[in-house]
Amino acid sequence: MLEYQAAKDLLKNKTILVTGAGDGIGKAAAIAYAKHGATVILLGKTVKKLEAVYDLIEQAGYPTPAIVPLDLKGATEQNYKDMAETIEEQFGKLDGLLHNASLLGVLGPFEHITMSTVNDVLQVNLIAEIMLTKAMLPIMRKSESASLLFTSSSVGRQGRAYWGEYAISKFATEGMMQSLAHEYEDTVIRVNSINPGATRTGMRANAYPAENPQTLKAPEDIMATYLYLMGDDSKDVNGQQLNAQ
Ligand code: NDP
């Protein structure tokens, strides 16, 4: 998939919401989507990071993005409903949603798991995803062709020792993806998941502190699959688990 070449105007006239758009893979995806013509809604926790991405997109001359500062850990169902209303007022519809924001939690023996970390990881990686998806589906139905994209991991497809709550959250995400893909198969909304693979970000460095980051692909290097799944070239792809590398 790394060799897929997205047309310059692949995402023209599309509005796409990216979570965790201030850093790492989400930042690269937001910029790649804007570069291919989309109006991107940048959702994230740290406003400064979102503003920096906003500026990069503006300076490059891509469509003006929007910023939604939101901490997925504390957000309520009402916050997501209000967000959907605002998006509908401003854009009329939503054509794409990339669930990208995640917490790694603490890696280690299962017997050392703490429930406060479990709660945080499941809140951000799963419960927030459920609430955001539920709120956005009605405005995604208004699109001619919408893509709902979840971010998984290799440990969301095959469990691994010491990956505790993070692996659990990614398996649940894959399950949600499959259920939604089945439920929405006769609609304009397709639902898939992507495993970015080892990528040079802060999260990866936390998980593998001894690794040389220069041996890894940068987020910008893995955007082909992110573009493919967001654009209409993947219109007939539904319920699939793709790898970006
Ligand atoms: P980063 O840690 O670099 O970025 C995560 C992003 O999520 C940040 O923008 C962060 O915002 C945001 N985020 C975290 N918590 C919250 C919150 N409570 N509310 C709002 N936003 C939040 O991670 P990556 O770019 O590496 O990961 C992106 C996705 O890819 C994740 O789903 C991850 O699980 C997955 N993945 C990554 C791999 C890798 O090798 N990098 C491998 C496999 C999967 P802020 O900076 O403001 O905290």
Please characterize this protein's 3D structure.
The chain is of the alpha/beta class. It has a single domain, classed as Rossmann fold (3-Layer(aba) Sandwich). It has a seven-stranded parallel β-sheet with strand order 3-2-1-4-5-6-7, with helices on both faces. Helix 1 packs parallel to helix 2 and helix 1 crosses helix 7. The longest helix is centred in the middle third of the chain and has 26 residues. The structure holds NADPH dihydro-nicotinamide-adenine-dinucleotide phosphate (NDP). NADPH dihydro-nicotinamide-adenine-dinucleotide phosphate binds next to helix 1 and helix 6. The site of NADPH dihydro-nicotinamide-adenine-dinucleotide phosphate has 27 residues, from helix 1 and helix 6.
Give a quick summary of the entry.
The chain has helices at residues 24-35, 47-59, 77-91, 115-140, 164-183, 202-207, 223-230; strands spanning 15-19, 39-44, 66-69, 96-99, 146-151, 189-195, 241-243.
What is the level-2 CATH architecture name?
3-Layer(aba) Sandwich
Q: What CATH first level would be assigned?
A: Alpha Beta
CATH fold node name: Rossmann fold
Distance between the termini: 7 Å
Hetero compounds:
NADPH dihydro-nicotinamide-adenine-dinucleotide phosphate
Shape: globular
Question: CATH superfamily, please?
Answer: NAD(P)-binding Rossmann-like Domain
What is the share of helical residues? 40-55%
Q: Over all CA atoms, what is the radius of gyration?
A: 17 Å
